[in-house]
Amino acid sequence: MVAAGLWLAQHSDAFATTVVLSQDERRETMMKAFHEAAPKTKAPVLLRLAFHDAGTYDANTDTGGSNGSIRFELNRPENGGLKRGLRCIDEVRNALRDTSEENASYADLISVGGAYAVEVCGGPRIDVPIGRLDVAEADPEGRMPLEDYSAGRLKDVFRRGGYTVQEFVALSGAHTVGGKGFGAPLEFSSVYYSELLRKPWEDPSDKMNQMIGLASDHAMADDEECQSWIRKYAEDQDLFFRDFARAYTKMSLSGARFA
Q1: 52 a catalytic residue
Q2: What residues contact 59, with CB distance under 8 A and at least 6 apart?
């Protein structure tokens, strides 16, 4: 009996039970790390990082997307300022040491980071799936929309990514975060759409108003197909929150490969 007990003590790992954590448990561990390591002031850059990682997806070829490739694309002109976002992700990775998610992929953390940014700014809770694999190289260039695109060209880019016009308009509501002039910079709300309808940049008497939004925002406000959804979201923030959460989840899955 003593010998048997000694053998069991020396070989206890042979009987170790693998603990399989649920998606909710894994996601909550990551969210806790974001709350510890990423102050609310980082929300705009984290949300933009998530959009730019997923924004390279091409639905026709099923390439690009939410795969962590942004790590290799930070020197591209459209990704200016996102090095700060990736540094924040690395700080969260450090906070995850000695937890079940210490080996979490960049793709997962970037997607969860965007969801955290929305929630910490008062937006909807978004439970994105967990388990993405990272790629080891950059996605193709020339797939991200530019700030001076027309509404028609923006819609084409989003269609290439597999999105409807409604999803495109809902996702554009992310511009309410980050100091583009659409309300408080750290508040996620439907004020973006109210301002698109108001078009304050057309007031020649106020130069500050002319700095609100991007040229692409202004173009979308003048697009008839977009306007119906802009009006709906301006009138119903709950509808905007629901549609944004669905569209963001779809974006977080675009091109993702899972273990």
Answers
A1: yes
A2: 160, 161, 162, 254
* Count of other CB atoms within 10 angstroms of residue 153: 14
Q: What is the SS3 assignment for 258?
A: strand
- The tokens for 136 are 């080891």
State the amino acid at position 208 in one-letter form. M
Which pLDDT value is given to residue 43?
98
Percent residues over pLDDT 70 in the chain: 93
| Catalytic residue from among 35, 52, 175, 218 | 52
Q: How far is CA 177 from CA 33, 38, 45, in A?
A: 21, 16, 9
Residue 25, SS3 per DSSP: helix
**CA-derived radius of gyration, the chain:** 21
d(C-alpha 196, C-alpha 231), whole Å = 9
Confidence of residue 1 (pLDDT cuts 50, 70, 90): very low
Q: Tell me the C-alpha distance between 112 and 101, whole Å.
A: 12
Structure tokens at 45: 């850059």
Residue 189 has pLDDT above 60, yes or no: yes
Tokens for 161, please give them.
């990514």
Which of 138, 144, 114 is CA-nearest to residue 216?
Answer: 144
With 0.70 as the threshold, say if the pTM is over it: yes
Cβ–Cβ < 8 Å for 175, 44? no
